[in-house]
Structure prediction request, 362 residues.
Amino acid sequence: MPVRQDLTPQQITGGAPLRPYPLPPLPPGHFYVEAEDPRSLGSGGIFVREDADPFDEYNYRVKSIVYTGRTQFQDIVIADTYNFGRALFLDGAIQSSAEDEALYHEMLVQPALLMHDNPRDVLIVGGGEGATLREVLAHRSVGSAVMIDIDQEVVAICRDQLPTWHCGAFEDPRATLLYMDGRRYLEDTDAKFDIIIIDVVDMLENGPAQRLYTRQFYELAHGHLRAGGILVVQGLEFSFADYKAHCALLRTLRTVFAEVHSYKTCVPSFLGSWGFLIASQSVSPHDFGPDALDRVILARLGSEWLDHATGDFIKASFSHCKETRFLLDLPGPILEDDVAFVEPPDIEEELPLGQLLPALAD
Prediction:
């Protein structure tokens, strides 16, 4: 229920609770909405099951199913959830939600574009919702954005059902949409790009999409970057508790690029921390301070476009805890064409019985 911000709590009707405090005024374009009372929903209901993890699953309770079907390549569900608004699921895995898609897509796109001197030509591999394209085309310097997605049906459904994701980006004359395999496109084209963004499915299960994660693919992509160009990859679920696939991508990219850096952010609807990787022969995130990034944001995007990304936030996303840094530095397997990815074993730390706190051991 939308709530006008000029009303006092006592004037709000329709089941809103009486609060013993005034609601603060909101900036233009914002308004209060009362959350659903879980007690009013009763038991049962409709759920979309996220079962991408081999051990755990999560049920998203939904108000309604907007679309369900199967394309040539994958199952698709679009549902209106209680916690995260409208959400897109592909093959049982959540891809994005209205509540936090801006966070994911800003962090996928903006660090690379902000760290490039003058991004003009951008290639997007994947990105069916159109939100990655939206964030790219927010930069006026971009004269051409080529988006390659193998699944035309998913793009058409998202175009119709997720308008706030793409914000009309598909109709921008700078955009070119091609429905084909991203690797085949790079094998057949002579085009050069300032930025290449890889935003494809998020699991390494030795399927056909894995050919977009291998050393050979990154060598191919590198050949299509101009001098000073940047490659960015959505880097799968990533934390010190779930790191093996992300670290394999990091090691693989380091066989091709001189500068490869891991960063992450917590995406609430993904139920955890999500990783990204940025790669270049010359551009390092360590060369950009928060103030410098904020100046670039203001000059290129203005003060209102971004919902989440700031200089401080971007800079902080490249900082990792001690355990995570240890895991990122470990040697291990890389991803190669026609070679199955076999995860390394888990690492456990021996904890001696009877160990005392440092203050008690003196």
